[in-house]
Design goal:
Blueprint lengths: L1 H16 L4 E6 L4 H10 L3 E5 L2 E6 L9 E6 L4 E6 L7 H5 L7
Antiparallel strand pairs: 1-5, 2-3, 3-4, 4-5
């Protein structure tokens, strides 16, 4: 029984460990055009559907999308960023922090 408990705890720690490196932030409402412009400047990938619009960028400098901003048609925008960052704007959320590459 102890081995099973330890295995469950270890599996949970590994599964959720990488999620702890990301942070969700609420940002002010941003129009489609404003987000698209910020996305283009950050060399991101813009997408839009019936429920909202978003952008994903490679803000950590490695392959993959590490920072995202999604705006629902009727609410504020939500950003997911890496580390302990606290972006104040959509542009900040989508770009590499100064001093990092």
């Amino acid at each position: 029984m102890r081995h099973l408990t330890a295995l469950v705890i270890l599996t949970g720690a590994l599964a959720f460990g990488s999620a702890a490196l990301a942070r969700d932030m609420t940002l002010p409402k941003t129009s489609t055009d404003q987000l698209k412009n910020a996305c283009d400047k950050a060399s991101g990938r813009f997408s839009q559907d019936a429920k909202g619009y978003g952008c994903g960028t490679n803000c950590a400098g490695a392959q993959g999308t590490d920072c995202t901003v999604y705006c629902s048609a009727d609410t504020q925008c939500t950003a997911q960023v890496i580390g302990a960052r606290r972006p104040r704007s959509v542009a900040d959320a989508l770009t590499t922090p100064k001093g990092r590459r």
